[in-house]
Design goal:
CATH architecture of the largest domain: Beta Barrel
CATH topology of the largest domain: AOC barrel-like
CATH class of the largest domain: Mainly Beta
Distance between the termini: 41 Å
Structural class: mainly beta
Largest sheet: 8 strands, antiparallel, barrel
Number of domains: 2
Shape: elongated
Length: 276
């Protein structure tokens, strides 16, 4: 295989460790939606804004506000979104429009769509972007003619897209006593690498290494209870007393990526930072 040509210095392609990013990937699948391509009276949902003279329609430009329904009957089935934009005759109809959702859960979120044909032509459109809950969306829409009705055509749509959302970081704790000095990580942890615990009758110190959002490794401490990572349970540590034992995090799910504490001569209280 031939080597790829070297890019100019101002072009950068960089792979990254997905576990250190501030974004997580999500999948969107919507099947059995129906676009009403209404181009006949009494209520067409598009308007020709440029109509070249002559027999050829080349260059014709049409603004559209097509309705998208949760069933095949546009007179009865609810509108869930609108396809708002333009389509232009350039050998085939080239579409560039925004799907603006109107249902709870996706309201104020959009998908940006491009592709050829409406009821004819290719059987897919591309999803090239998104906003709101669907920011950075990429994917495709499978489309096919469902039926012809008096006002135009009904196009069946199946939508598939990948989009990104930010991870949320929550804190659990600190659990333990009220004494000691507050200890916080100097850098925001995104992945836990290693933990060192010095313990006997008490938890004397804790030290840990983590990766930040930029992929840089940091060590926090030397600055305890039971520590739980997303892979295994550590401990118990310390001497059993009449005090109530505890484990962290209390809520299941997510990944422990860092710690905060209160310490003096020993670890007096310990909390965890969880990525969800």
């Amino acid at each position: 295989m031939a080597a790829s040509p070297e890019l100019p210095s101002n072009f950068q392609i960089k792979s990254f460790d997905a576990s250190t990013t501030t974004m997580k990937k999500n999948e969107l699948k919507i099947s059995n939606l129906y676009l009403h391509h209404a181009y006949r009276e009494p209520s067409p949902t598009h308007l020709t804004i440029l109509s070249p003279k002559g027999r050829s329609a080349f260059g014709a430009t049409v603004a559209n506000n097509w309705t998208i329904h949760d069933g095949p009957d546009p007179s009865k089935d609810a509108i869930v979104a609108r396809a708002q934009g333009l389509h232009m005759q350039s050998g085939d109809w080239h579409n560039s429009f925004t799907i603006a959702f109107e249902i709870d859960g996706l309201k104020d979120s959009t998908l940006q769509v491009m592709g050829l044909g409406v009821d004819k032509g290719t059987n897919q459109w591309s999803i090239v972007g998104g906003t709101g809950q669907l920011t950075f969306a990429q994917g495709f829409i499978n489309k096919k003619l469902h039926k012809v009705i008096n006002t135009g055509n009904v196009i069946e749509l199946d939508i598939y897209a990948i989009f990104q959302t930010k991870y949320t970081f929550t804190r659990d704790g600190p659990k333990g006593g009220n004494a000691g000095q507050a200890r916080e990580p100097k850098y925001e942890p995104h992945r836990l690498e290693s933990i060192k615990i010095s313990h006997g009758d008490l938890i004397y110190s804790i030290e840990y290494s983590h990766i930040d959002q930029y992929g840089t490794k940091h060590t926090e401490g030397r600055w305890g209870g039971t520590e739980v990572t997303n892979l295994l349970t550590l401990g118990p540590y310390g001497k059993e007393t009449s005090e109530s034992p505890f484990s962290l995090p209390e809520k299941k799910g997510g990944s422990v990526v860092g710690f905060f504490a209160r310490t003096g001569a020993a670890v007096d209280a310990l909390g965890v930072i969880v990525r969800e």
